[in-house]
Amino acid sequence: MAEFGESHWWYRSTRALLRQLIEPHLDGAVDHGLHLDAAGGTGATGAWLTESAPTVLADYEQFALVMAAQEHPGYIAVRADLNQMPFAAASFSTVLCVTALCHRMNANPAAIVEDFARISRPGAIVALLEPGGKRLWRSHDDVTHTARRFSVCELRAMSEAAGLETIKATGAYSFLVPPAFLLGIFERSSTKSDVGRNQSGLFGMFGALARLERRLLRRFDVPFGLSAIVIARKPG
Fold this sequence. Notes:
CATH topology: Rossmann fold
Largest sheet: 7 strands, mixed
Number of strands: 7
Helix content: 25-40%
Strand content: 15-25%
Distance between the termini: 37 Å
Radius of gyration: 17 Å
Strand order of the largest sheet: 3-2-1-4-5-7-6
Oligomer: single chain
Number of domains: 1
Order of helices and strands: HEEHEEHEHHEHHE
């Protein structure tokens, strides 16, 4: 992930997607305040937040924090466990969490989202992106220590149960559902990750499809996809 985070088509597309979905709401998020990239790894999907406000990157893996600090000087790197976050209530105006609630070390995703609500200021944006499609399990999930995949409805319900108001709840990368389903069948006994292969996305085809889908997501929600996304706001 550290090697391919800046160049792999999925990371490039996900940065663009998250920016499109989140940035229009930041002006109302408590004067931009302080952002949190929770379990942000090397910063491959959330570093753009540092352009608008100081951004804390909290991750449990020390190597990821070192890489993030080298690649993205705008980050404030903090070693932290999502299950015991060391932040005071109402600390952040934006909380971003990408593909972390799914991880095996995070046994209670709902409790983590409740803590996101706790550390968010009134009016703050909370953005969640997780693996979607419960039946799309494949070797990539095993390699990346994934314990669960989420439906869009499940992720939205978890967010609303924490007291957050939904702005957008949608699937993404819907065009990847058929190939992911086939990989799940043909790679059952394999240990391959999507990160270390096909960086170009079939010579740019996946990136082009992702751009088309982003245009669609400006106006509509997609009920399914290889990713599930919720953009929410803390009331107040």
